[in-house]
Write a structure and sequence with these properties.
homodimer, three-stranded antiparallel beta sheet, DNA-binding
Amino acid sequence: MPDTVPPDAGDLLEPLARVVRSYYDALTAVATSHGLSGAQARALIALREPLSMSALADHLVCDASNATGLIARMEARGLVRRDPSPEDRRSKVVTATAEGRELALRLRSAMHTVHAALEALTPQERTALLPLLDRLGDLLTR
Amino acid sequence: MPDTVPPDAGDLLEPLARVVRSYYDALTAVATSHGLSGAQARALIALREPLSMSALADHLVCDASNATGLIARMEARGLVRRDPSPEDRRSKVVTATAEGRELALRLRSAMHTVHAALEALTPQERTALLPLLDRLGDLLTR
DNA sequence: TATTGTTATACTCTATAACTATA
DNA sequence: TATAGTTATAGAGTATAACAATA
């Protein structure tokens, strides 16, 4: 008779919170090491493809006026550009500059802290973890 | 021959990010539904026990002047109290009021979104998840 | 009339520097 | 001298309301 009493939800909450915190700490450390706020890092990562101001605000889940200020600061720093849309003269297209794209690349690749932790798992652990994470994500977002 | 090719770290990153995002969304939704900012919620949760201003700033990992403004706003709202320390006349002790403690209770118990998702796992899934979360937390924080 | 983006305004969070009172 | 807390100041992120240009 193995001692496999299933843990209750409370037993899982603490280690889950620890994983979440570590994940966020790693990501914000990367952003600030490149002199970016979290909001700016998120915007830059979203700008893989050019986006209109409203599409960007939707993506960042913030008000359009907020996006205006955010992008204005990033434009002043040379990370993005705002061009008039050729299709709709009300609209503007936000594009990452070469410098912005290069920084975004470093931001993405510099998620290596989290990536390395996942690499350090054994193949068995990885195989076991994947469906559990999928399931948990489904449960949390439904 | 089962198709158990172990997933690489990239395969795990996306579902992990989804879990993390859902977790944070749930927590901030709880805080804002009670009219609290994230910083205020964190402070209130930290104040299970009375703390000095500097101990609170340490806990929140922010500057002391930041804690002054934060606690001043919460004090104006009747959530906390600042009393002179009887031991060190330079120091003040921050204590949650009855209203603040009641709100903190609701904040803690209202983590039910995450809790419910964990409850919805099968006993087998919970048993499998716990050691993996522990291991991942260790890898991320070391 | 509705939409896109901006400006004006205001509040919170955050930090640095200078200050007071106390140790 | 060093520490605890505050104030003054500044900048970033956030939202609401009002506005111009365009659809």
